[in-house]
Amino acid sequence: MEGIIIHIGWEYFIGLLSALVAMAWYSNGRFTALETSMDWLKKMLLELKKSIDEVNANTDAEKPREGKAERRPLKQQTLW
Fold first, then answer.
1. pLDDT, position 31
2. Count of CB atoms situated within 10 Å of the CB of 45
3. How far is CA 44 from CA 21, 49, 51, 54, in A?
4. For tag attachment on the chain, is the N or C end more exposed, with fewer CB atoms within 10 Å?
């Protein structure tokens, strides 16, 4: 005996095929919702901007202002 032979009726084949299609459809919906949600990226960028602003504020506070020309603050743009 060299191999395993499995006989599957057409009813079981259609059932297995439909189960595979249902699993693919369900998982596709879950992955699509995960891919289209950009809230995590927005939060990450806002936290990064906040930490950069805090570091800049701390370094500006430590530097002496004497003898330096006043510079205008940069215009901030919103992401969304």
1. 63
2. 13
3. 36, 9, 11, 15
4. N
- Token pair listed for 46: 């806002």
Between the two ends of the chain, the Cα-to-Cα distance in Å is: 67
Q: Assign 16 a pLDDT band (cuts: 50, 70, 90).
A: very high
Q: Which two tokens stand for residue 4?
A: 């395993």
Write the secondary structure of the chain as one string of H (helix), E (strand) and C (coil).
Answer: CCCCCCCCCHHHHHHHHHHHHHHHHHHHHHHHHHHHCCHHHHHHHHHHHHHHHHHHHHHHHHCCCCCCCCCCCCCCCCCC
Residue type, 57: A
List CB contacts of 42: < 8 A, sequence separation 6 or more: 79, 80
